[in-house]
Amino acid sequence: MVPMQTCKYFHQSRPTSFPLSNIKVLLLEGVSSSALNEFRAEAFIVETLATALSEEEVMERIQDVHVLGIRSKTRVTATALGAARRLLAVGCFCIGTNQAAKLRGVPVFNAPFSNTRSVAELTIAEVVALARQLGDRSNEMHAGTWRKVSRGCYEVGVLAEMLGMRVVYFDPLSKMAIGNAASRASLKEVLESADFVTLHVPATPATANLMGAAELSSMRKGSYLLNNSRGSVVDVAALAAALRSGALGGAAVDVFPSEPERNGDGFATELQGLPNMILTPHVGGSTEEAQAAIGLEVASALIKYINIGSSAGAVNFPQMDHPEDEDSHRVLNVHHNVPGVLRDVNRIISDLDANIKAQVNVTDSDIGYLMMDINKEVSNEVKDALKQLPSNIRTRILY
Q: Which residue in 46, 110, 183, 327 has its CB near the most CB atoms, within 10 A?
């Protein structure tokens, strides 16, 4: 007898190929309780740890885990994944991702938008603080110095355009302007016209050192640079030089090319001790609201993948989200993207006289993700045959 389980992604109670109460979830680094609640509602077994783990510790803990949840400090390396015998998916409860799992058939889900408001709020706060040199005045007061000055300080009102600010932007992809924001044809045009330049880009080869010496020299004299995106997008040495020379009026940096694995002393950067320089330890998205939203978003995506095979939202997997047919069995196959895969798959289907109710195959440059809803009588035979194909990476079946 296969036990009956209830899942919010199913329309009614139905048998499952692997009892949900046997699914093991390991959440590291104090992932929000919103994620914990989602997993427990599915009857998953959940273990939580408040801290990050080293590679060796991950290898020890991951062996029998089906779902691993991490934040920004834990690194899930290819070596660590080699110890994972049952891992189905990884959840990055942050913006950053680790894609070493791809060729092992393990999708990685993250939450790219859940902390947008928190980062925007920090950015606005820093705009005001830089315009008033609040960081310097605060440091002086802590050191016992009273220095009431106004030179180089400017008024900034309430919020963005409502602050009285005119917003211009550049994006290599065509984006519809919001409000009165105005698009510019190039980054150089933005740098030449903006008093405050804020960066909102991912870490890619194209954005590495996006703001180097040439770009910084294109900024208006006395203007300000804010980087709350990725540490690799700014040439830190060039920024430090621009601040020392007075070319820039100040800067705020929340992300760094190299960041400590754990909280504590010993952090060093060329930006320390510079005038009107706000340094924060990668806390742009670190609000209670953002963490709760991230927990809910990532946990929901992981649950949907476990229960119906949806890869929607995975950062390292072809995107698939097909409605479930409760009168069939769903076979999920991750394979190397090589010629002839569907030919081999359909030969298996034909030889076993299987009835396909739905077949969807999506690919990227490396792998393909195949989802088939077929008649129940031959589903196990189809699954076993797919596992024998040279192209196979992982095959599982959902009842």
A: 110
